[in-house]
Amino acid sequence: MANATQATIDPREAAHFGKLAADWWNPRGSSAMLHRLNPARLTFIRDAANAHWDLDPAGFTPLAGKTAIDVGCGAGLLAEPLARLGATVTGLDAAPENIGAAQAHAAATGLPIEYLACGIEDLHDRRFDLVTSMEVIEHVTNPAAFVAGLANALAPGGLLILSTPNRTALSRLAMITFGEGTGAIPKGTHDWNQFLAPDELIALLEAAGLRVTARTGLTFSPARGFVTAADETLNYLLSAVRA
Question: What is the dihedral of CA 151, 201, 114, 11, to 10 degrees?
């Protein structure tokens, strides 16, 4: 297993996303793509949690009594819905500017979310029932150490959920050539060479003592926006548990 205490934050990446903090909650701003991704992400998270814990699929707060951490939380786009689903939520991000924006937004909406400006390796022995990290692993310095840190944060019987772009010709075209080229995604957000293919990420999860329980693609439908589907060419999501 990789050393979970190894630093994983890339200061350049943290600075890049920190500059976007003030605009993070603007659905038409620099983080518009994340707003559009969120419904599909939440559907996968809720389905995976329902299956893992045999939750009530019709319940309004199915995560009540569960602790959750969103690693690489930005300004809280996923942390807040997790809190509304009933979880006791912690958000962690490398950029202090994002944490400030997240704290302000949570306070304005009355959500008691704990936010921390640090790396996954700084959590030490804290454990959570649900660990999420969406579109983050492609921005860290050491993916193996990052995954080991996520695994270390998982409580016994817990559930880990990840999403990340696949390293394919389509992802380069869609996210960098088109997305960053047209300004739909802030320029400099992605390095295609840091994207992980599903087999590569699964190998890292297995090396950290985890077992994948579900996976799906995340793709774009002109009629419905971003949806989960079998096609993993653009982006994909995984759930995992301790092996």
Answer: 110
Q: How does pLDDT run across 18-30, given as a tens digit for each residue?
A: 666 677 788 877 7
> How far apart are alpha carbons 169 and 135 in whole angstroms?
18
The pLDDT of residue 153: 97
Ordered by where they begin, the domains of the chain are: 11-51+64-242 (3.40.50.150)
Question: Do residues 76 and 91 lie in contact, with contact meaning Cβ atoms separated by under 8 Å?
Answer: yes
Residue 213 predicted with pLDDT over 90: yes
- Closest by CA position to 169, among listed 189, 145, 144, 195: 195
Enumerate residues 6+ apart whose C-beta is below 8 A from 241.
52, 154, 157, 158, 159, 160, 210, 211, 213
Structure tokens at 192: 């295609």
Backbone phi, psi, residue 90, to 5°: -120, 135
